[in-house]
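Hey all, sorry for the wall of text incoming. These are the two entities for the joint prediction.
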Amino acid sequence: AAGVIQSPRHLIKEKRETATLKCYPIPRHDTVYWYQQGPGQDPQFLISFYEKMQSDKGSIPDRFSAQQFSDYHSELNMSSLELGDSALYFCASSLGAEGGDEQFFGPGTRLTVL
Amino acid sequence: QKEVEQNSGPLSVPEGAIASLNCTYSDRGSQSFFWYRQYSGKSPELIMSIYSNGDKEDGRFTAQLNKASQYVSLLIRDSQPSDSATYLCAVAEAGTALIFGKGTTLSVSS
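and here's what came out:
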């Protein structure tokens, strides 16, 4: 079965640089969530999209933005990167509340900020 | 502040034993409850979802939900060394973002 695809899998950036993370949800899934997981931490919700509209916002810094495109893939844009942004970034997709709200996670992008 | 609490462990059980993982949550509006397994450096893998009070069984896994006590548990029967991982309890209102507990580390010794 098709899974959530994330790219790149690994990313190394310098402080103050920008990064773009991509997420391709499971086919027919209309809801995408972004989570950040620091070392030894549980995943923290950043932002979500339903049918290409932002549906909820969590602890996402103002330096970060995201959007969902017409093909349902999503991108997380991160600017002015800081050392503390080093983490695993996961995208999860679901069918949404109407179709069952189980969230399936992608393999993640490991971001290292030097 | 919506919170999900889990014992961090480690929980150590011998191979073939039953592992019991527990979780409590603070938000009475929560409607969806999940258990994820996460190996180090990997993504969370959904192993159980439960929405109604009572038990739900899937293979060696049984999830239990008690909304009155705001309590969710996961039983793993016939534990295997490959079950050694961190188990994350996650809670959500319908169709919303997951709130995770900090996870319980399970170690199954052969």
